[in-house]
């Protein structure tokens, strides 16, 4: 999750997927949305499965409507556009969880990628070469969904592989 | 904590600072070194104070002798050299904790920098300009000290500021 979206996507009010909210309330009768560490980790793994399955119809179960990414108010539609754009640039994109550190409502993940971007990626002329790199990323959850993301991609690792 | 060291520094056997170990054992009579979340966070803040104070004599209280950084077996001496080199490149270097996510024995931190590298930094011609950027970094602790570090600096943020 790294490219800038083509432009700021207008917020598009929509019906909230209700199942995630109901699950959250069932687990937490106080309604405060403070998931346990185990539940937060399990939910994050489901989110990564959703990304790897390109299951955009269910993205709203894991990502809040007013999600922010590196300070930008993308909203759910903009977040989905960002991910779809990632898959266009990197047809073999796959998110692999290498490390998880959860402390509700926050979670940090070290993600690993072993992929083949088709053209330029992060401004680098990858052009179909295979590269491996990591993303270190923090999330803040609210009512069981991702509300804010702070992500850094290891661009230097890719530069080193391009020589 | 980002530049490559000048070379691999030979391991230099030394007496272990014993106070940190004793504290750990006192807190955890089982001797497994599994600090509580609160203790881990407090210890990490002390480590950051140690860096900001350039208190290299006490670095071994927080960093293990066989520490690894982004897969490189730096050892404590190499780690110290890396930090001293950071301060040479960036005389006004200061580590600011923006976010902590602790789940012993691991901790993730989002660090913020607002600094003035003197010359090139990460291969970029900063040359005395003031730049702000983040580091997302994971740590694994062992017996109360940092055993392994996985760090990514937001190079793209610096590039964007240099225009």
Question: Features of this protein?
Answer:
homodimer, 163 residues, alpha+beta, Nuclear Transport Factor 2, Chain: A, five-stranded mixed sheet, two-stranded antiparallel sheet, globular, disordered N terminus
Question: Can you give a write-up of this model?
Answer:
2 copies of one chain form a homodimer. With 163 residues, the first copy, chain A, is of the alpha+beta class. Chain A has one domain: Nuclear Transport Factor 2, Chain: A, CATH 3.10.450.50. Chain A has helices spanning 18-27, 37-52, 75-89, 155-162, and strands at 63-69, 96-103, 106-115, 120-121, 124-125, 131-142, 145-153. In chain A, the strands form 2 sheets. In chain A, strands 1-7-6-3-2 form a 5-stranded mixed β-sheet, with helices on both faces. Chain A has a two-stranded antiparallel ribbon with strand order 4-5. In chain A, strand 2 and strand 3 form a beta hairpin. Chain A is globular. Residues 3-32 of chain A have low confidence and may be disordered. At the A-B interface, strand 2, strand 3, strand 6, strand 7 and helix 4 of A face strand 2, strand 3, strand 6, strand 7 and helix 4 of B.
% residues in beta strands of chain A: 25-35%
How widely separated are the two ends of chain A?
24 Å
What oligomeric arrangement do these chains adopt?
A: homodimer
The largest sheet of chain A, given as strand count, sense and whether it forms a barrel, is: 5 strands, mixed
The percent range for helix content of chain A is: 25-40%
Radius of gyration of chain A: 16 Å
| CATH level 3 topology of chain A | Nuclear Transport Factor 2, Chain: A
Uncertain segments of chain A of ≥5 residues (pLDDT<50)? Answer: 3-32
Rounded average pLDDT of chain A: 86
